[in-house]
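Q: Got one fold?
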Amino acid sequence: MSKKVLVTGCAGFIGYSITKDLLNNNFSVYGVDSLNDAYSEVLKKARLDNLLSNKSFTFNNIDLAEISQLDSIDESFDVILHLAARAGVRQSFLQPDVYVRDNTLATTNIANYAKNNSISKLIISSTSSVYGDSGEQSVEENVDELESPPSIYAATKISGERIAKTILDDSGVILSIPRFFTVYGPWGRPDMSILRFIYWIVKGTPLRLYGDGEQRRAFTYIDDVVAALAKLIDEDTEGTFNIGSAKINTLNEAISYIEEKLDKKAQIEYLDKAYRDVNVVIPSLENSSNNLNWEPKISLKEGLAYTTDWCLSNIDLLDKIEYLYEGEESKSEN
């Protein structure tokens, strides 16, 4: 008998990708999403349309911060995969109340729901932002989280982690927390660098680069993230796990790989470094390797080639999206 999984944030980038993988592997998925306007709803609705074509997928548009809406779900689940969140460092300073609501409160409600409904396993996604700038040392789970988080976003995510742990202590619910590092790939978010960079280079429009491009990231391809989540769903592995690339690359290196793939130069418009943007975050993957038996497999050059091919095949969809960096004002009336 296949497992039934509740996936929150199923219309988001990672939520859509893992839901599609689960459906392809004969899981039954109950997806929830509020389809908010954090970034282009066009992309979210296109992802959701793809999922709705599968008879093993059920969708419910609910707000997880409203406990009554969550409690109205009259289903039983083997696993809850909580991926719904409000992301973005800069924007979190502009809307702190929204981030507390969509991240900390929603995660609190999910943890209570798992406990009250005797769910055997809860997986809560988190972020590398809780570490701040790592410098040249790799960051380790349960050691290097900053006492004073560097952003409202990071504060709401680490608060959600800690509240969930407290709620589920001695409950019997298996709690796993993957922390993601700069995830990219097909169906990615248009407020993050990679999808924006590819689209702008393809279209020959100025590529807006905040800072000098020497910021370094553990760019992590979506298939590697999906593989980690699949392991957490299939295995009873508790703990917190860094899910990131073993190799650190600069934004400039990412741009050069895209230019090479497209055989086209970017028209770069250099802007001031983004507010509270970190220089580098390097993940320690020792725990993920030893205790989850997971390691990333896709290099940045390879992953960018796959992502660029997807963008070229879906250019009509991408033409409908507004590519705003977090906190930028919309250029349209809508």
Remarks:
- The radius of gyration is 19 Å.
- Residues 96-116 form the longest helix (21 residues).
- The longest strand covers residues 174-180.
